Amino acid sequence: xxxxxxxxxxxxxxxxxxxxxxxxxxxxxxxxxxxxxxxxxxxxxxxxxxxxxxxxxxxxxxxxxxxxxxxxxxxx
Length: 76
Ligand SMILES: [Zn+2]
Prior knowledge:
Distance between the termini: 25 Å
Shape: elongated
CATH class: Alpha Beta
Bound molecules: zinc ion
CATH topology: Ubiquitin-like (UB roll)
Order of helices and strands: EEEHE
Radius of gyration: 14 Å
Structural class: alpha+beta
Helix content: 10-25%
């Protein structure tokens, strides 16, 4: 698909890492499948992946670790 961020690049399926910072806690989720722009690097997640990411964020924020690095595991 056409990248909506830079409006020039095209996206291709790949894997990215997403970093969340909440207060003093930093969470890095690796191996997230996403459509990634070949020009500006913007990434787009599909709704299922976004839901998985949300679950991981919820679980990890409960642990209270200052820094967590996890791999996204698809449930299905
Ligand atoms: Zn782009």
